[in-house]
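To whoever is on call:

I kicked off a structure prediction for a single chain this morning and the downstream step that reads the tokens threw a length-mismatch warning. I double-checked the sequence; it's 284 residues and nothing unusual in it as far as I can see. Pasting both halves so you can look.
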Amino acid sequence: MKYLSKKIPYIALFPFLFVVFCYEFLPLVELAISSLTGKQSGSIGFENFIRIFTTPLYQKSIINSIYISLFSSIIGLIIAFLAAHFCHESSPKVQQRMAMILNMTSNFSGIPLAFAFMILMGNTGILTLLGKNFSIPFLDGFNLYGTDGLMIVYIYFQIPLATILLIPAFNGIKPQWKEAAIILNANSFNYWVKIIIPYMIPSLLGTLSVLFANALAAYATAYAIVMNNYALLALQITSKYKGDVQIDKATGGALAIILILLMVIATVINNYFMKRSVKGRSII
């Protein structure tokens, strides 16, 4: 009986392991096999990857995905840093309302988000028409269905996530640090540059990697806005498995593996800086 009671937790874990095996491990194995099976020759090798890195469309898709993901992550991180600082310095009542707003906006994504931006900044959107009528430089002739439009959308859904991730880092700042800085005649600039920013660098870089991975894998919003008319890695993967053209599992699998590798790199960087952050805070 005692032996059986020790095995119960492992038995309860079986459904979870079964789901992971069926819906994560098996698809990953299928992608790996498809990516290494040549589309033309049918032999095992790197034929698909060579074709991807020598085809301008796929090159452009990878470059656009990395560019939009990285740029939107940096801009979103800067705005989120200010928002998290405001939330940290605010009263508990304001913090509670900020948490509610952040939770709502962080879950507002996908098709509804794309539809909202079409209403506001599409070809006949409210803000676009106001920009044309009043000759507002940014809004006059704004193209939602290109790089600028996607960048705005990506920055929007990066900000709530980054703010939620940075608030705990601000909560770790101790009041004694500012008191010690004042005693040593340090001004606000020195306090932020020499104390707060170095302390938060691991959290900032870790959050940046999370945002990069989040933007790189984003699909629904981008597809709803530009369909397959824009070169993005996630959209190119989808086009190989659905649509009017013939299914191309070899190229789709290779593109998916490239996306997974980029995600893994971002995750490894995130874990590295998070460990440094925890270690640094334990020392402090």
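Update from on-call: the warning came from a stale cache, not from the record. Cleared it. Sanity check on the structure: The chain has a mean pLDDT of 84.
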